[in-house]
Write a structure and sequence with these properties.
heterodimer; A: mainly alpha; 74% helix; elongated; B: mainly alpha; 1 helix; 0% strand
């Protein structure tokens, strides 16, 4: 996560720069450091990266937050309870997960697949929720078109 | 009805795999860093 936050431009521009205040100068330094490691004929095996102190905490939080949310969603969807309360939790959980992730990192295939599966597992009477999954899917496509 | 059950199972299994993958990756990361 630490690496992603520094070198994946989607995380860097969407999270690292606004939250931790990573500067463009630091990013340029890091990219240079990384390139120097990959160059032919270079014998150094380490490169010092520059980043704000809070970055470690953000990476730690995002790692565990993702693992915990995935665990909760797995339990919700695999549990053999099908009452209205659990179904609502499932729908809301999946929706929150997808929106919080795929609006920052528009991985169109995954986002849309989740939305299609979300819509497919709705009961016939859950029309609003099914519509919400379809709308979210369109939102991802628009975001994807804007950002790429 | 079949589709209803399958989509729910698929989502559940996807997240279950993602969860275990995350935990394993985290353990491996800790071990590598401890070396």
């Amino acid at each position: 996560m630490h690496y992603k936050l520094l070198f994946d431009y989607r995380f860097r521009e969407g999270i690292t720069q606004p939250i931790t205040g990573l500067t463009t100068a630091q990013t340029a330094h890091n990219l240079n450091a990384l390139t120097s490691l990959r160059s032919l004929g270079v014998t150094n095996t380490t490169a010092a990266l520059q980043y704000p102190e809070q970055l470690g905490g953000v990476a730690w939080f995002m790692t565990w937050w993702t693992i915990i949310v995935e665990g909760i969603l797995a339990v919700l969807f695999l549990a053999p309870w099908h009452n209205a309360f659990v179904r609502n939790l499932r729908n809301m959980g999946l929706m929150l997960f997808a929106i919080s992730l795929y609006l920052i990192v528009p991985v169109l295939g995954f986002g849309n697949l989740f939305m299609v599966m979300g819509a497919a597992q709705c009961r016939p009477d859950e029309r609003k929720m099914r519509g919400a999954f379809v709308v979210a899917s369109m939102l991802f496509m628009i975001m994807f078109a804007i950002r790429f | 009805m079949t589709l209803l059950v399958n989509a729910r199972l698929l989502i559940g299994l996807t997240f279950a795999f993602a969860f275990f993958e995350g935990v394993v990756a985290r353990i491996l990361f800790e071990r590598t860093n401890a070396l």
